[in-house]
TrEMBL record:
SUPFAM superfamilies attached to this UniProt entry: Sm-like ribonucleoproteins (SSF50182)
InterPro entries: LSM_dom_sf, YgdI/YgdR-like, YgdI/YgdR-like_SH3-like
Record lineage: Bacteria, Pseudomonadati, Pseudomonadota, Gammaproteobacteria, Pseudomonadales
Pfam families membership: DUF903
Residue ranges occupied by any Lipoprotein YgdI/YgdR-like SH3-like domain in the UniProt entry: 41-88
Organism: Pseudomonas fluvialis
Keywords, sorted A to Z: Cell membrane, Lipoprotein, Membrane, Palmitate, Signal
The protein's name in its UniProt record: YgdI/YgdR family lipoprotein
Amino acid sequence: MSALVSHRTGVPFPSQKEFAHEKLLTLGLAALLLTGCASEYLLITNNGDVLTSYGKPELDKNNGLLEFTDSEGRIQQVPQDTIKTVIER
């Protein structure tokens, strides 16, 4: 079976296997770039403690707690009224 060739450029089209490989590589690079976009945030409490959040903390409106993922990957919750400042690093 002969390869399909573009009538404009004369360049052969990639095979299904090559296309799948390129698609997988593109998706992998996109995932890598997106994970690199997550920022660190510092949460400074009213008593001066500093908590580090990987990704933006989110407020749970049902219970008034700020939820965030700490540097070890654990999900933490703290009362919103105990946080004095949130700084994006």
